[in-house]
Amino acid sequence: MRILPGLLSALFLASPAYSRCGGSFDGFVQDLKSEAAGRGHDTEAVDAFFQGVRQDAQVLKADRAQGVFQKPFIEFSRHLISQNRIDRGRAMASRHAAVFDRIEAEYGVSRGVLLAFWAFETDYGGYQGDFNTRNALVTLAHDCRRPELFRPQIFAAIELYERGGFDPQRTTGAWAGEIGMVQMLPRDILENGVDADGDGQVSLRTSAPDALVSGAKMLSGLGWQPGQPWLQEVKVPGQMDWSLSGPGRHRPVSEWQTMGVKARSGNLPGGNMPASLILPQGHEGPAFLAFPNFDVYFEWNQSFVYVLTAAYFATRLEGAAIYDAGNPQPGLSGPQMKQLQSLLQARGHDVGEIDGILGAGTRAAVQAEQARLSLAADAWPTVELLNRL
Predict the structure, then answer these.
(1) 74-117, pLDDT tens digit by residue?
(2) Within-domain flag for 78
(3) Which of 85, 144, 176, 355 could form an SS bridge with 5, CB 3.0 to 4.6 Å?
(4) Around Cβ 19, how many Cβ atoms within 10 Å?
(5) Angle at 181 between CA 178 and CA 187, to 5 degrees
């Protein structure tokens, strides 16, 4: 499900070693072998690891076919969240209550957060992917789109192989190289794998305790604040400075309250807690306050619509009501979104790839142009904005 997978690996900076890509696939593999030997890996183990490696065209196809992320939040969230997933999530919470109690005590990660990832990544472990993990990683490292993300994972997989925790011929997972119930990349497993069931092995594919506790440890390492909230639905006033909204634009909760932002149910956290106002489909659609833990989600996945849906689903699993969808203005079609991105890019905005996805760069550019044109600067692109541009 991840659009830019990589947890800890996503934090790696590109280096000349990681930027080598393309060219002959066989030559690329020989280059990997040389680098692995240079890193101190046993040459016989390296040869065995790469024996039979092949380029997987289906991995490249999957990497380029992620149209689901073009859907707006309301449609995307309704696509992923069903009553069946909610019921199963609550059943899993009951079945593994002792594990979640341990996680909350040791790492401070609420059970709903991990249940949501478990549901979205593998449908509670039911489908973990059948791509050969080694082939997927080598294929994506050879491809020149994001070699800095995937090349380090190959050497981590070699280390797992040397430790007996990876079979290059049989280990399978998602197309982007993630393994197990909550989909962790090899380096993440090295850094955060936990033998939670005490059987002497870290088994993320077959052991729910291992997978869940490992995921919690990873989130903790990424900066999760124990016992803190991550997202809460709110009601917004009819008029306010919408340019203040957006992920990462933190203000104390008390300031948002002064501007007329209210909890839809219950109470908001203490007045000094920083929060950002999230309006996924503009000021006439759903509204949320996102707290610092929400930012940690972007280390798991860089898709805004996926992150918000996962964070919201976590609140649903812990008893929150279905969000108020409001009455947002119609959004843009895929071709219209690409046209908008091209126009924004021509005006000097960095929107990244022209892909029709309303990502962080496109949202920031939309908001800037809305403010310039005296439109409601809520980062939701409309036909009116497209026409004005």
Answers:
(1) 999 999 999 999 999 999 999 999 999 999 999 999 999 999 99
(2) no
(3) 176
(4) 11
(5) 35
